Amino acid sequence: MRTSRDTFLEASLVAQLAAFQNIIPLPGIAAQAEQDCFAKQLVDSIRRIQYVRIIRDKINTQSCVNPNLGGFNPIKAAAFHHANGNSEEASWLVFLLTHFGKNKTTGWQLIKDVYGNLGAGIFDWQQACQAPRMLGIWIDNNEGQLKANGGNFGNHRKYQSLDVNHTGRTISSYIEWVGPANSHLVKFLQLEPNQNDPQIRFRAFYNSMSQVYGFGRTAVFDYLTMMGKLQLIDVEPDSVYMTGATGPFTGGQLLFTGSTVATITRPQLDQMLSVLNQHLALPFGMQVLEDAICNWQKSPNRYIYFSG
User: Fold this and answer.
1) Residue of 40, 108, 130, 221 with fewest CB within 10 Å of its CB?
2) In total, how many domains does the chain have?
3) Domain limits at 29?
4) How far is residue 221's CA from residue 263's CA, in Å, rounded to a whole number?
5) Quick check: 151 and 107 in contact, CB under 8 A?
6) pLDDT in tens, 131-181
7) Are residues 86 and 187 in the same domain?
8) Are 205 and 188 in contact (CB under 8 A)?
9) Residues 130 and 41 in one domain
10) Is the dihedral of CA 212, 214, 220, 224 positive or negative?
11) DSSP H helical segments within 179-216, as ranges?
């Protein structure tokens, strides 16, 4: 349900987008319907980021932490662990929620069942590090039950498999990427670039995660932005990272050329979106644009709410 505050923000964005077209034309939103629809998608993307920040800053209770209880929410659980000094478990949860995602129909069921060992305990970070392949083998062995429970991947991970050679390999390679100290804090300190800049830091961390099997452009972007929103690391995306993008690339083409088949390169789109981001001056703006143009291109002139 849209609030009066959403309406005000939407009107402000429409005015900003109109002014931006004196800098770079946006043929994809030349018509009022497309312009209004794109502004609404921007508002939704901003609200999704604000939602995570609200969860981060509120006092979460133990009820959200245990995957074998009804109130489990992996984002709230990560925020709880971080607030209580356990950033390692918080980071592990961010990885798991990124890999499995939130399914439109079954919600967090898959991560709930995996993290909660189908009701028999919790596969926490310490246990995963002690036997990196164990969890992948367990998932493979229990694939039938996980699926029967409604264990489906989220939209960004819909082509993933629970097979040990896929999810198991992803988990093992992630633990290997974190390194022998089994500490996310140590890993990110090792990757720290000389410049104390959240955007330079994001790029350094983004490039390093090519070592994680099955984590392509979208998964790495989602993982790092969630880590940033929860303040587990001080990062902010410096780019939409068009290389390897599908929906954002289509949306960027449509926005800046009016066509999804126009000849514009991915680096050019990255640069144009960077200029647009500077003009709009949105907090965590590149993530807002990445999410908004991806959703907008699915229905450019008729607003549809997308949950993620």
Assistant:
1) 130
2) 2
3) 4-53+239-293
4) 25
5) no
6) 999 999 999 999 999 999 988 888 878 778 898 899 999 999 999 999 999
7) yes
8) yes
9) no
10) negative
11) 184-191, 198-208
